[in-house]
Write a structure and sequence with these properties.
By secondary structure, the protein is α+β, with helices and mostly antiparallel strands. Strands 2-1-3-4 form a 4-stranded antiparallel beta sheet. Helix 4 packs antiparallel against helix 5. The longest helix has 46 residues. The termini are far apart.
Length: 246
């Protein structure tokens, strides 16, 4: 029995060794095949992007990163299945890059201005759904200025009352030099009256300005009320910033 087992073992051993050797050669072959795969096949297997382009000689170049020889032309970036992922544009010169950046900034500014106009118009329509609401707001703004004007006019009347005893006292010194105290009081009174009159002129100009603003705003609103899309109407003059603040 022992002899039979030794004979069976001696027969089986070469087969086992053969299988092991064959497996080793198979693994070696797979490794060699892997390293011999072209770059595109290896990239597809790993899931990496594939850059490809035609160089200046018309030859197709492929790599796993942007191709320096094709920096002056567009490069196609492929997915692992060969489908187009994106296109890389040519590398720009400093002058071209500056020009592109300037165009992008201008476009961004235009988009921001448009968004601001849309927001302004929507706020304007929400605040003033009709002309009656706008007229009420106009009168409220004008009344603030009128109150200030009335206060200035009242102050002038008070100063005139304060001046009367000073003038009477000055009559006593007719033909003579006024005392310094009296002279200073009369000059201060004159200066205060002059300041109030200047203020009234400023307030009158403010009434004109406020009315002008509301006129322009009303013209703008009428177009919105008729259905013009927010942001589609150019302002007649400077932006009506006061409508954002009210």
């Amino acid at each position: 029995m022992a002899l039979e087992r030794r004979q069976e073992h001696s027969v089986a051993s070469p087969d086992t060794r053969g299988v092991a050797v064959a497996s080793a050669w198979l693994l070696l072959g797979i490794a060699l095949a892997w390293w011999q795969l072209p770059a595109r096949a290896q990239q597809a297997a790993t899931g990496a992007s594939i850059y490809t382009c035609l160089d200046d000689r018309g030859r197709t170049r492929t790599a796993d990163r942007p191709i320096a020889e094709c920096s002056d032309r567009e490069q196609r970036v492929l997915n692992k299945d060969g489908s187009l992922k994106r296109i890389v544009p040519p590398t720009l010169t400093p002058e071209e890059r500056a020009d592109r950046d300037a165009q992008e900034r201008k476009a961004a500014e235009e988009r921001a201005a448009y968004n601001d106009a849309v927001r302004r118009d929507r706020n304007l329509k929400n605040r003033f759904p009709n002309e009656a609401a706008h007229s009420k707001a106009r009168e409220s703004a004008l009344e603030v200025v009128r109150v200030a004007m009335r206060a200035s006019q009242q102050r002038i009347k008070e100063l005139e009352i304060e001046r009367r005893p000073l003038k009477e006292e000055a009559e006593f010194y007719r033909g003579r030099q006024l005392p310094a105290r009296l002279k200073q009081q009369l000059e201060a009174n004159d200066a205060s009256v002059g300041a109030q009159r200047d203020l009234i002129q400023t307030q009158e100009a403010e009434l004109v300005r406020v009315n002008r603003i509301y006129d322009l705003e009303l013209e703008h609103l009428r177009k919105l009320w008729k259905g013009a899309p927010p942001g589609s109407i150019s302002l007649v003059s400077a932006p009506l910033a006061h409508s954002e603040q009210r």
